Amino acid sequence: MCVLNRRRFIVFLQFLLLAAKQASGQFNYDQQGRDWAGTCATGRSQSPIRLADNTAIRRPIPRIRFTNYNRALQSPLIMTNNGHTANIVLPPTNNGQRASIQGGLLPGTFEAQSVHFHWGSANSRGSEHLINGQRYDVEMHIVHKNVRYATVAEASLRPDGLAVLGVMLQAVPTLISTHFGLNRILDRLPQVIRDQSSTMIAGQLTMNDLLGRIPTGRFYSYNGSLTTPDCAESVTWTVFSDSVKLPRPQIAKFWDLPDERSLPLINNYRHPQEINGRPIFQRTLI
Description:
alpha+beta, globular, Carbonic Anhydrase II, single chain, 3-stranded mixed beta sheet, 12-stranded mixed beta sheet, 15 strands, 6 helices
């Protein structure tokens, strides 16, 4: 084997090893995802992206219809620091059914599965999507699975498999917050200071509590991907235009979490991806 071919083989082998490592859940945000392999590097419908009023297509899109979003989730509700984010696996509601969404540009009915967060640091904001050039302090993702598929893993292999609601959280200096549901979650962040540690969120919580009373009639929607490896291109995104305002001390609790290497888990957002000609739709009606 000549020297050039040997070098190419070594680079290819390193690429495969990196892809396998990411697929097993081992990745970091040191380069905001620029060093991720596999579909993350080669996909053409990747997320997040830049969203803007002057480039979005305004259409009379149906509203998102929320089912069981007003019902209390079964308890206990568990939040885990998985080394990449603070993640909550969502149980069914107290009537035995899952919260679900329809409408918008969603190709079917999607049941809520989990919620997690992306954030910045004391000196930077950390939302994944940018709206009109603005990056918000935190972006919350509520992940839903198409009812056609049995598991999230199966759904992630299908272009109509997943739907994610993106909710922006904005830190403000002085505010008496009335977002009791979100505050109840953020209050428990100091209990997951260790990687792979978990905590129980006490009291009843509904999916509506997570939305913080934002106007859900205003949103952007497009077809994209998961924003973590393996970056499967299986997501219909709905990103709400309005943000939830929370006291800065509440947002600051994210900055104390460690990643799986025991390093500060900050700036856990992926850099914006190319749109590659995809249509980005916008609904502006309340």
